[in-house]
Amino acid sequence: MRHLLAIEGMPREQAIALLDKADGYVEHSRAATKKTDRLAGRTVVNLFFESSTRTRTSFELAAQRLGADVINMEVAWSSIKKGETLIDTAMTLNAMHPDALVVRAPDSGAVKLLSEKVNCAVLNGGDGAHEHPTQALLDALTIRRRKGELRGLRVAICGDIAHSRVARSNIHLLNILGAEVRVIAPPTLLPPGIESLGVEAFTDMREGLQGCDIVMMLRLQTERMQGHYIPSIREYFRFYGLDHAKLASAKPDALIMHPGPMNRGVEIDTVVADDIDRSVIREQVEMGVAVRMAVLEVLAGRAAEETA
Ligand code: CP
């Protein structure tokens, strides 16, 4: 593996190896001393063209805990503001010999394009509505640690499927790991032909949530809906917001997940989001650091070995 651009096409053994490695970093991240020197002397650059709290911070923490040097490019203060393109910016950074570039971009496919222009490892921190591979890995790790394994679990991904890179990466990884995947959304937010990705599609929450082990909620990505129909918040919450009444259709021990950022009272009721027995939303954030340590160790470490 030279880059981490997508989950689609990832061999099952590779996904499991990454999850196993990440699992090993969970206890490490809880210890008083969190730093290792596995990436000492390596450089990781975070290049985020869209806002982020979880992904950027956890990549930064992960790189620091592995002993790497980390640079966070401040796009607002970079030469992108003077008209430099994403590719030229990446090639400029590449000339400074980083070992890994973590990139978030608003356009689907932009991170792959960029990976073809640089020498270092490229990790996709989310590209448009295409993929968000580390989110799917941290979601799988969260589920695996709670439920033992993913094979045979029924997972519902609910909400704005049409604009969600999280949904796409999760659909691929959950299928690779043997889960049964359902998507639930209003007809306007269900991409035509979504079943071809290996999911069963529903437009009714109670029907779709029947017997589910995992309920994954998604934010309405209004920033990607320009020129499209945007549902009213009140109407959306009534039919698609996760509250305890709708959740009653899922299994009694179903876990509640959300990749964040969360809009309480829109796609999820605040009582459900904070349900201490079933909500694993904070655990997902914790797993994010472990997963990003695993992928950085594999990719930035390998890049360094190749140039040695
Ligand atoms: N889940 C996720 O990608 O969150 P951020 O946008 O805060 O990184």
Automatic annotation (TrEMBL):
Molecular function as annotated in GO: amino acid binding; aspartate carbamoyltransferase activity
Limits of the Aspartate/ornithine carbamoyltransferase Asp/Orn-binding domain: 152-298
Origin superkingdom: Bacteria
Residues binding carbamoyl phosphate: 54-55, 104, 132, 135, 260-261
InterPro entries, per database record: Asp/Orn_carbamoyltranf_P-bd, Asp/Orn_carbamoylTrfase, Asp/Orn_carbamoylTrfase_sf, Asp_carbamoyltransf, Asp_carbamoyltransf_Asp/Orn-bd
UniProt catalytic activity: carbamoyl phosphate + L-aspartate = N-carbamoyl-L-aspartate + phosphate + H(+)
Residues the record lists as binding L-aspartate: 82, 165, 219
The entry's keywords: Pyrimidine biosynthesis, Transferase
Enzyme class label: transferase
Gene3D superfamilies named in the record: Aspartate/ornithine carbamoyltransferase
One biological process term in Gene Ontology: amino acid metabolic process
Occurrences of domain Aspartate/ornithine carbamoyltransferase carbamoyl-P binding (ranges): 2-144
One cellular-component annotation, GO: cytosol
Pathway: Pyrimidine metabolism; UMP biosynthesis via de novo pathway; (S)-dihydroorotate from bicarbonate: step 2/3
Enzyme Commission identifier(s): 2.1.3.2
Family: Belongs to the aspartate/ornithine carbamoyltransferase superfamily. ATCase family.
Function according to Swiss-Prot or TrEMBL: Catalyzes the condensation of carbamoyl phosphate and aspartate to form carbamoyl aspartate and inorganic phosphate, the committed step in the de novo pyrimidine nucleotide biosynthesis pathway.
HAMAP family per UniProt: Asp_carb_tr
Subunit structure: Heterododecamer (2C3:3R2) of six catalytic PyrB chains organized as two trimers (C3), and six regulatory PyrI chains organized as three dimers (R2).
Entry protein name: Aspartate carbamoyltransferase
Organism: Limimonas halophila
Gene: pyrB
